[in-house]
Amino acid sequence: MPVVTFDYNDFIDLLGYQISKETLIDKLPMIGGDFDKIEGNELSIEFFPNRPDLTSIEGIARASRAFFEFETGLKQYPLKKSDIELTVDPSVKKVRPFVTTAYIKNVTMTDELIASLMDLQEKLHYGLGRNRKKVAIGVHNFEPVTPPFTYKAVHPDSVQFIPLAKDDSMTLREILTKHEKGIDYAFTLDGYDTYPLIVDSNNNVLSFPPIINGRLTEVTPYTKEIFIDVTGTDLKTINYALNIISTAFAERGCEIYQTIVHDDTTSTLSPDLTPTKRDLSVKYVNNILGTKLSENDIINCLKKMGYNSTIESDNKLNIEIPAWRSDILHEIDLVEDVAIGYGFDLFKTDFPTSSTFGKTLPQYDLRKSLRTIMIGLGFNEVTTFTISNETDEFTKLGLEIGETVQIKNPIGEEYSILRPNLLSSLLKILRENRHHPLPQQIFEVGIIVDKHAKNRYHLAGLKIDAKANFTQCKSIVEAVLRGVHCPMTIKESSHAAFIEGRCAEIMQGAKEIGIFGELHPRTIQNFELEHPIIAFELSMDGLQQVLYQ
Description:
By secondary structure, this protein is an alpha+beta fold. Helix content is 29%, strand content 30%. Helix 3 (57-67) crosses helix 7 and helix 9 crosses helix 10.
């Protein structure tokens, strides 16, 4: 979770009100965080990652004014209009389609602002921005450049400029291979033939998003005017990021000026701090929290969390949600803030009013029984990752790549899908332990994810040994089925991962619920193993249908 470190005196200056350090340490975590470290006046607090607006001292000060009831309700920031324009060229639409901008004046670049700005920018890159893939923020000294600006895509070798932290001019392609930031974030532009660029009216480069800014617009302690660009793949998210960072400047006494973004046939003023609106049912709040709060009680609770609210009708409130609150996705999120505003310390604990006796669910009992049986057969239980990749799950097993649940913006190729079976995961465990003595027997009762994105429990087991054979595997499978009193039939089968003629299906009527046999030498070698392996995998849904029908 993001940790924000700040000086208590700087916080009090931003807050504009007096609050003792002891009260702050005691009450501030109720908003949704926990103090990580306290050393004199230096405080470090860890907030839940769903609140990117609290990842800076400026955001914490704004939230604290409302929470400690110095200034309740929705914070209003005055917006002035500028004549600064940015045009989105159609060439960039297939690369990084969205951009939003802001112009900040009356800036005083103190040490505290510089440190907070850099920290906030990196936290937004990591949280909202998914390591800059989804959102990237550029902060520029406005004085050396001349609007209007253009956001376009260019060939990697057609433009060169001096990037931050360098003295020599480099092409975009050279930046990705030679510059430290280029090497770190080159993955964000994988697969593209053209790269995004922001230039001014004189063709001076401000930014090569999401990689690096130009040295021309480097922010210095003497910078008085700031231009902010936020680019990305999701329009809503880049607007949240711009609202968070521009209002952080406003908290420091800076002035926010709206700019004009021309995109195709639309022209938009940004930033736009207009609150969004959502209805909230009073009955729903009380049912969730177990309270008897009136409409005005809920309004007061939400004021402490920085909202404005009005009574729309009987049992319904209309809530104005701040433009920097990206975490409000559902009515339940507002209920959570009602609870925080009400005070968790005011909720009463009580004993149950009736005596009840719980029991485990049948499927849990089955999983427990299978674990006990496998341990009794001499197997060791392992737990593996549900995230995998197509090479391990299909290619190495000799299968054609099938339909799976894909992970959007994966951290790497190794973790790009949710696994459709357990066998590959167990084979990877054997690979990591191939230098240990044989025999090795492992099993897992774990989750696989089918093509409909549904979690399914499977049981799989492997044994690697010089004498491992089909007969031994069949005995193990029969012992497992016998142990859970599950009658099944076994039928000869063919599977690319197994040796032809030494593979069988486990049948429930006409439906296959499992497979077992001797793994093919090709499969064994694909996982960098050398000795014979027997394997089986069972669907627990199939077992449950037989046992609990």
